[in-house]
Amino acid sequence: MLRMGTYPWSLKRRIMSRFGHLSNDDSMLAVQRMIGADLKTLCMIHLSQKNNHESIVRDMANRIIKRTGAQLELSIAQQFQATGTFDIKRRGGSRPAMPPRGVQMALF
Predict the structure, then answer these.
(1) Distance (Å, whole) CA 75 – CA 41
(2) Measured between alpha carbons, how far is 28 from 63 in angstroms, rounded to an integer?
(3) Whole-angstrom Cα distance, residue 27 to residue 22?
């Protein structure tokens, strides 16, 4: 969708770069890695208004949820509408180490 969209190529290249945005496929790989017994709510955020669609992301996420048998609530944030509230708490384990200041965290 991004390649066929209306953005100038300079912006498309930045978005598609290693430090740009995740594709839907890459996002779903991250979701698969996060799904576990402790995950109760999944909120998909930062969807492009021009180069993506909620129905595509919802369908992809629902397929992963069904395939894994995860029991969780799926929410998709809207561009110009507030989400509901989410109860966020740490379950067991220690806090993960943070990377040095000024270093971009790697997702994969």
Answers:
(1) 8
(2) 10
(3) 6
DSSP H or E run through 14: helix 9-16
By residue count, the chain amounts to 108
46-105 tens-digit pLDDT? 888 888 899 999 999 999 999 999 999 999 998 888 888 887 766 665 666 667 777 776
Tokens of 78: 């809207």
CA distance 44 to 74: 8
Structure letter (DSSP) for residue 106 = P
pTM (predicted TM-score): 0.71
Give me the long-range contacts of 66-74 (CB less than 8 A, separation at least 24): 68/32, 68/35, 70/35, 70/39, 71/40, 72/35, 72/39, 72/40, 72/41, 72/42, 73/40, 73/41, 73/42, 74/42, 74/43, 74/44
